[in-house]
Design goal:
single chain
Length: 249
């Protein structure tokens, strides 16, 4: 029971960090201003937005490392350090099938994570655009078939790993009897909440951007110096939006 109580904060902490970055970016920037300034003045010449995203990435990865360490300790306690695999005499066809499915889930989840990082990079994954980093719009290759692929991949990896241990270890059932399903459900529910929070934040940002673009279009129409922006011309809209931001800076 004590191990579960210790594990709960480590599960919740990464999602608190996500909430802070989505809703309190200014607070995050001020609290780490000295690191952000150091990154900006480094030889790599990171922008302020990129520097904040890099700081958040290191903090989030460290929090995830702590979570996985406590998770491993909880598994050790549940199994009483008995990591013996199911013997050949006790193997069942159902167990073999389920273990194979778990392996496929982990593999698919890992591939989704790789594709996300390959598409938008570390800065894109860790809210670089929320911090003001100038990131190009990149269409994820599987968006038509998989919404929020990052969290789908994480859910598949966690679920596949948990149930894989249940089916492959002799005392794997102890993970379920000690509250493993509840902890897994909590973890997945938190990721669903974070995904919904990000989606809502994206909608609000797009609405604000649309309002700015409408104002730019109205100004262009009044001045008559350029053609009004059309809804289908995304490149023209993006260029005008970037130009307007530079003027404000």
């Amino acid at each position: 029971m004590l191990e579960v109580l210790v594990l709960l904060p480590t599960i919740i902490n990464p999602h608190i960090l996500n909430w802070v970055c989505l809703n309190r970016q200014d607070y995050f920037k001020k609290s780490l201003s000295f690191i952000v300034e150091a990154l900006q003045t480094s030889e790599a010449h990171f922008s302020a937005g990129e520097s904040c995203a890099i700081c958040f990435a290191f903090i989030a990865i460290f929090a995830k490392f702590i979570e996985l360490s406590f998770w491993h300790h909880w598994v050790e306690v549940c199994l009483e350090s008995n990591w013996n695999y199911v013997s050949a005499a006790n193997e069942t066809f159902f167990g073999d099938i389920m273990f194979t499915i778990c392996n496929i889930m982990v593999a698919v989840g890992f591939i989704l994570l790789l594709l996300v990082y390959q598409s938008i990079g570390l800065i894109g994954v860790y809210y670089g655009n929320r911090f003001g980093a100038d990131l190009p719009w990149i269409a994820y290759p599987l968006n038509e078939y998989c919404h929020r692929p990052l969290y789908v991949g994480i859910a598949l990896m966690y679920s596949g790993t948990f149930f894989g241990l249940v089916f492959i270890l002799e005392d794997g059932w102890l993970l379920i009897s000690n509250g493993g399903l509840q902890l897994l459900g909590l973890r997945l529910a938190l990721y669903v909440h974070t995904a919904r929070m990000e989606y809502q934040d994206t909608l609000e940002r797009h609405e604000k951007q649309s309002e700015k673009l409408k104002k730019i279009e109205q100004q262009n129409e009044r001045s008559g110096t350029s053609q009004p922006l059309t809804s289908n011309n995304k490149k023209q809209k993006h260029a005008a939006y970037q130009k307007n931001n530079k003027k404000k800076r």
